[in-house]
Design goal:
This protein is an alpha+beta fold. The protein has 19 helices and 27 strands.
Length: about 575
């Protein structure tokens, strides 16, 4: 909790018995008493800290804007481990610092303000009271506009943002107080007013992020086709790269517009649109209102057929997709031109036509991925058990995300099933079709060729081979069986391994705190302690106690009387 009630005396806070000054990066000394009556930011940072190095330029920009016109000063409190590192880092800062040699004051400030991570910016008002310890977040979100960083000012900014959302226009999104233009790829200024009345795509991207690298050519193709058709469509790039070289690389050789490098809106717009993924293509309609928060996936799948990105268009595309799903066959998803096969061991080609009529599991995975390696033995075990019952019922196809042929060969070598060849172009299509955003992922294709589920990995984890053929009906059967089994158990019990009562609880997967093995479906669970016991672990203990009670009853019949933990001869 922020200590807003205490007014800190600046002189005693920042000085020591032998020092009444702070220093600048040129060695000049500044009396601490000159800071009285100013708003102060205590900046806890270190040169070895990557997030600190990225944040410092933002703070410099805010400092430059506020220090000249307001009573505001920043004091650097170092976390550097040697004086050379301190001096090198401090040389980039226009404010004051506590000398590196005064480790006692530095330590006491960290303790006083409970600094547990850096960068940290503690803001004090003119009376020395803590305004906030969340200065870093405030600077990130609002910049110099947040000055003097009070809760009232932050609330005012948030209300202004909400008002801007309600009355959103293209100008309110793209223009600022100091800029009413965007840039063309050749650096010319294009007035934001020239874009009004058009459908505008805001393209959030990074030139070093592989999904953006792959998406940009597809967006370029769609953009050029729409322009050729005479559609009133424009793109404004929002580059999220922090260095100018990457910015230049991102805007060269593309025909659309861009915000200027390091423009303040580049920091604000991701928050405004609640950006959660890259690439993101936000669509602003002709009226300046947001039509869609991200159509990148739609552009990848449908190209210009998704234009103009309206709800009606997406409803139309949804119906088309449903029709495709209904008519889907195994060959329609696994055959592409001459690529009409998968491979077995030693690269032997297996025609896709030979797999028609089987349940197929598409296994998206990679050797470099620890969760993939952990899941593989479970999948192999289920595969063998299913094949033992019906050798022709199931096949698995490995779809690799490995980075080289050797890694693919090594991982595939431990698998008893088929695969797409390494680097096969069908992988990109399948990843896009099934929206593969993480691995391992297991997609079940039924004997009809239609998609049964994209959650087959979870089903293998929960039910093993019993999940076959992975249909909704089969899963309901398994759940009904589990429910019936659980009816015979006590709903609550006490166990010697845990102090609290344990309750029968539905749990997808967990690690038993009794035997350290994975459990699924049901647990005897303590929510307060997040403590799990397998039913078998919990009930074995109970059964042994029941046996003891039965023996006690027998002994009582033989003239023994049991009271608590002691039995005596009557």
């Amino acid at each position: 909790m922020e200590d807003v009630a205490v007014a800190h005396d600046v002189l005693s806070l920042l000085s020591s018995p032998h020092r009444d000054f702070l220093i600048r990066n040129n060695g000049d000394q500044v009396k601490i008493e000159s800071l009285k009556g100013k708003n102060i930011g205590l900046y806890f940072s270190g040169s070895w800290c990557g997030p600190c190095r990225r944040f410092t330029p933002n703070l410099v920009e805010v400092y430059d804007e506020t220090s000249s016109k307001a009573e505001f000063e920043v004091v650097f409190v170092t976390s550097d481990r040697d004086e050379d590192s301190f001096k090198g880092y401090f040389s980039k800062m226009p404010w004051l610092a506590i000398p590196f040699s005064d480790s006692e004051t530095i330590s006491s400030l960290k303790k006083l303000f409970q600094v547990r991570g850096i960068p940290s910016l503690v803001l004090l008002d003119q009376a020395g009271q803590v305004v906030t310890k969340s200065g870093v977040m405030i600077i990130h979100e609002h910049g110099a506009e947040a000055y003097p960083f009070t809760s009232e000012r932050i609330q005012q900014l948030q209300e202004e943002e909400e008002e801007a959302r309600r009355n959103q226009t293209l100008r309110s999104i793209l223009a600022s107080r100091s800029r009413d233009f965007v840039l063309s790829s050749d650096g010319k200024k294009v007035a934001v007013s020239e874009l009004e009345g058009k459908v505008v795509g805001l393209y959030f991207y990074s030139v070093v992020y592989e999904p953006c690298v792959e998406f940009t050519p597809k967006l370029l193709e769609a953009y050029e086709k729409l322009r050729q058709k005479g559609e009133s469509f424009e793109i404004v790039a929002i580059p999220l790269d922090s260095d100018e070289e990457s910015f230049k690389k991102g805007v060269e050789n593309v025909p659309w517009l861009s915000l200027p490098f390091k423009d303040k809106s580049i920091d604000k717009l991701p928050r405004y649109f609640e950006l959660s993924a890259l690439p993101t293509l936000v669509i602003i309609g002709e009226d300046g209102k947001t039509l869609h928060s991200n159509v990148a996936e739609a552009v990848e799948e449908h190209g210009i057929a998704a234009y103009p990105f309206t709800p009606d268009k997406f409803a139309e595309l949804s119906e088309i997709e449903k029709a495709k799903e209904e008519s889907q066959t195994l060959e329609s998803i696994l055959v592409s031109g001459e690529h009409d096969f998968v491979i077995g061991k030693d690269g032997v080609k297996v025609p896709v036509s030979e797999l028609v009529g089987k349940t197929i599991l598409l296994y998206f995975s990679a050797h470099w991925c620890p969760p993939c390696r952990a899941f593989l033995p479970k999948l192999i075990d289920a595969y063998h058990k299913i094949k033992e019952k019906d050798n022709n019922a199931l096949e698995v196809i490995f779809i690799s995300s490995d980075r080289d042929q050797d890694s693919f060969d090594k991982f595939f070598g431990g698998m008893p099933w088929l695969a797409l060849p390494f680097g096969d172009s069908r992988k990109a299509f399948l990843s896009r079709k099934f929206k593969v955003s993480g691995i391992p992922m297991l997609v079940a294709i039924g004997s009809s060729g239609r998609t049964v589920t994209k959650e087959a990995r979870d089903l293998i984890d929960l039910h093993g081979a019993d999940a076959y053929p992975f249909t909704e009906e089969r899963i309901k059967e398994l759940e009904a069986e589990e429910e019936e089994t659980a009816k015979a158990w006590p709903q609550k019990l006490k166990h010697e391994s845990h102090e609290h009562e344990l309750v029968v609880t539905r749990r997808r997967t967990y690690v038993c705190d009794g035997c350290d093995e994975q459990g699924r479906a049901w647990s005897f669970y303590c929510a307060e302690c997040d403590f799990d016991l397998h039913p078998k672990c919990a009930l074995e203990n109970k059964e042994s106690k029941d046996d003891d009670e039965a023996k006690n009853e027998d002994k009582a019949k033989d003239g023994w009387v049991c009271d608590g933990e002691v039995c005596t001869k009557a």
